[in-house]
Amino acid sequence: MAQTPAIHVGSDTRAKSQADALRDAEFAIRETGLAVTFTSDPHIGGAGDLDGSGVAVLVTCLPQGSRTFIEVVGASDNSAAAEQARNRIRTITMGPPS
């Protein structure tokens, strides 16, 4: 059986605009050491190596009134790397609870 990627997902809402959330997601992707590979409203994606493993991330930012729903997905053949990418990008993008 071929190895399949592990996928880690985290989501919540924050009291910020969609534009701010997408800007924060772009910063988070780059800060994590990944390259932004595409942007297509309401998504931004990135890919690269994290701790020696290839990872890909997808951040979705959907406006919900005065809040924005933010979902961060990390994928990799290495489950720990997928989890780490998701956690780092989620933490930076979402910031503290609001």
Description:
The chain has 98 residues and is an alpha+beta fold. It is 31% helix and 46% strand. It contains two helices and five strands; from the N terminus they run E-H-E-E-E-E-H. The chain has helices at residues 18-31, 79-94; strands at 6-14, 35-40, 43-50, 53-64, 67-76. The longest helix has 16 residues, at 79-94. The model has no long low-confidence stretch (mean pLDDT 94).
Number of strands: 5
Structural category is alpha+beta
Q: Can you list the strand order of the major beta sheet?
A: 1-5-4-3-2
**Average pLDDT:** 94
Largest sheet: 5 strands, antiparallel
pLDDT under 50 segments (min length 5)? none
| Termini Cα gap | 44 Å
What's the helix-strand series?
EHEEEEH
Q: Count up the helices.
A: 2
Instruction: Note the beta-strand portion.
Output: over 45%
Helicity range of the residues? 25-40%
Summarize the entry for a quick read.
The chain has 98 residues and is α+β, with helices and mostly antiparallel strands.
From the structure above, extract its key features.
98 residues; alpha+beta; five-stranded antiparallel β-sheet; 2 helices; elongated
Protein topology:
Blueprint: E1 6-14, H1 18-31, E2 35-40, E3 43-50, E4 53-64, E5 67-76, H2 79-94
Antiparallel strand pairs: 1-5, 2-3, 3-4, 4-5
